[in-house]
Design brief:
95 residues, mainly alpha, two-stranded parallel sheet, two-stranded antiparallel ribbon, 48% helix, Membr_insert_effic_factor_YidD, membrane
């Protein structure tokens, strides 16, 4: 199970680096809340790499100058995962 989370965490690391280095150069220009990069990161964390990238791509395509914007949360996942403070995904501990 833990090995299956590696691709998810690699994508999260890439998005964390993007948000730290490139995103500040653009400033606060996103029409939606959360921002597109944050939306993609949350989608990947909760839905996995394939579905998360799909959700993120759809969101970026909706983000254009004529979009109304607003609050746009990711769809509820079938199964929730725990995340660290840095955003990396951990397997949920069984109760």
């Amino acid at each position: 199970m833990k090995l299956m989370l590696i691709p998810r965490n690699v994508c999260v690391a890439i998005l964390v680096a993007y948000r730290a280095v490139i995103s500040p150069l653009y400033g606060d220009v996103c029409r939606y809340y959360p921002s597109c990069s944050r939306y993609a990161m949350e989608a990947i964390q909760q839905h996995g790499v394939v579905r998360g990238i799909w959700f993120g791509t759809r969101r970026i395509l909706r983000c254009h100058p004529w979009a109304a914007g607003g609050v746009d949360d990711i769809p509820e996942p079938r199964r929730r995962f725990e995340t660290t403070r840095a955003g990396f995904v951990l397997a949920r501990k069984e109760q």
